[in-house]
Write a structure and sequence with these properties.
The protein is α/β, with parallel strands linked by helices. Helices cover about 25% and strands about 30% of the residues. The protein starts with a strand and ends in a 5-residue tail after the last helix. This is FAD-dependent oxidoreductase.
Length: about 400
């Protein structure tokens, strides 16, 4: 495709990887990256960890060195939004009313925070955490904060609570469901995280409904439906994200809990591809369509998209994996646990801070949650990628080295 113009829309991991892969494979035409962010693509996970704590700068979390983008065929447009896609003449309109024409278009639009409608949600001092700008706002407020409330007991909420707690701020986590992390893990692991956070000084309250966020010129408290009032000079709302699909939907692309793509990253328009948090794709390993919110998925799917653009069809087959850092704990997750009917524990969730939880559906291994257990994570991830079965009794027995537990595991 000599002379072809590829436009990538987005500023996250998927967009950055498409650009990098095209440059490395020497895309013969022009490349334009259009990002609403003011910064070059940066890593998102540190926003609720090292960047929020101040131990990392924006320069340190950039995905690629700024010099990487200084290529003659690469045009990077920051702080710029694509407002419309016109498929009939293969063009995109920008928020400055200019128009760019494409031969191939990649949508890496990611996800956006789910916003609350609680009374008082617009008060100064109420934040979400999705971008560097969000984290900057929270960091500016932290020195003036004695007490903070985090609404939402998912991974982002708990990671943020850990950073605030380590900064000496009194933190209350409010979760509407009966337990934290209820949508993604077992009762034992939910109880583990609640225990650890409380040991560190975080107050965790589950099964509660927030009635209002209160204040005059600035937030000063949160009121629950029970009538309890919780003082707070900082409120962070972490109630999930939704895929950014408006551009695709208005353009007439197939959208269903994400932009629907095939195993090669192609949308319902052969000249438009998509990658990352915004996509819904069929996963052959689990036999169903899924939408993933992870760096691994964004990066691996972006590589597949770049291959497709270059005429090299390599189907997406990666094992999903994720991680979460809280206090002195690193949680590593491989696979998807949805549909499990049994959990095998290696180690204890009721004491200490190290265990591995293996999720099974019948005799099929689905996923692992490894807490400060890197050897278990690596071994299980390899077994999942190879489709191997394993004896649950061997996994549960800590006298059996984890490598030996998987050594004779037959392939499915």
């Amino acid at each position: 495709m000599s002379g072809a113009h590829c436009i990538i829309v987005g500023g996250g991991h998927a967009a950055a990887q498409v650009v990098a892969s095209l440059c490395i494979s020497q895309w013969p035409g022009r490349i334009t990256l259009v990002s609403a962010e003011s910064y070059l693509p940066y890593q998102r996970p540190p926003l609720s960890k090292s960047y929020l704590s101040g131990s990392s700068t924006i320069e340190q979390i950039l995905i690629r060195n700024p010099d990487f983008y200084k290529k003659p065929n690469l045009d990077v447009r920051l702080a710029t939004r694509v407002t419309e896609i016109t498929r009939s003449d293969k063009s995109v309109r920008l928020d400055d009313q200019s128009t760019l024409r494409y031969d191939k278009l990649v949508l890496a639009t990611g996800a956006q925070v789910r916003r609350t409608t609680i009374d008082g949600h617009g008060l100064p001092g109420v934040f979400y955490l999705r971008s560097a700008a969000d984290a900057d706002g929270i960091r500016q407020q932290m020195p003036r904060t004695n007490k903070a409330v985090v609404i939402g007991g998912g991974y982002i909420g708990l990671e943020t609570a850990a950073v605030l707690c380590k900064a000496g701020i009194g933190v209350t986590v409010l979760e509407a469901l009966p337990r934290v992390l209820q949508r993604v893990t077992t009762e034992e692991i939910s109880a583990f995280y609640k225990r650890v956070h409380e040991e560190e000084g975080v107050r965790v309250v589950t099964g509660v409904v927030v009635k209002s966020i209160d204040g005059d010129e600035y937030v000063r408290s949160v009121t629950l439906q029970s009538g309890e009032v919780i003082d707070a000079q900082l409120v962070i709302v972490g109630i999930g994200v939704v895929a950014c699909t408006d551009l695709a939907a208005v353009a007439g692309l197939t959208v269903s809990d994400g932009i629907v793509v095939d195993e090669y990253g192609r949308t319902s328009d052969p000249d438009i591809l998509a990658a990352g948090d915004c996509t819904n794709h069929f996963n052959a390993l689990y036999g169903r369509n899924i939408r993933l919110e992870s760096v691994q998925n964004a990066t691996d799917q972006a590589k597949v998209v770049a291959d497709t653009l270059g005429g090299r069809l390599s189907p997406y087959r990666a094992i999903p994996w994720f991680w979460s850092d809280q206090f002195d704990m690193k949680l590593q997750i491989a696979g998807l646990s949805q549909g499990y009917d049994r959990v095998v524990l290696r180690g204890s969730t009721t004491e200490g801070r190290s265990f591995a939880a293996f999720y099974f559906q019948g005799d099929r291994l689905l996923a692992i949650d490894a807490l400060n257990r890197p050897k278990e994570f690596v071994a299980c991830r390899k077994a999942l990628s190879e489709g191997r079965r394993v004896d649950p009794a061997l996994l549960a027995d800590e006298l059996v080295p984890i490598q030996d537990a998987f050594a004779e595991a037959p392939q499915i």
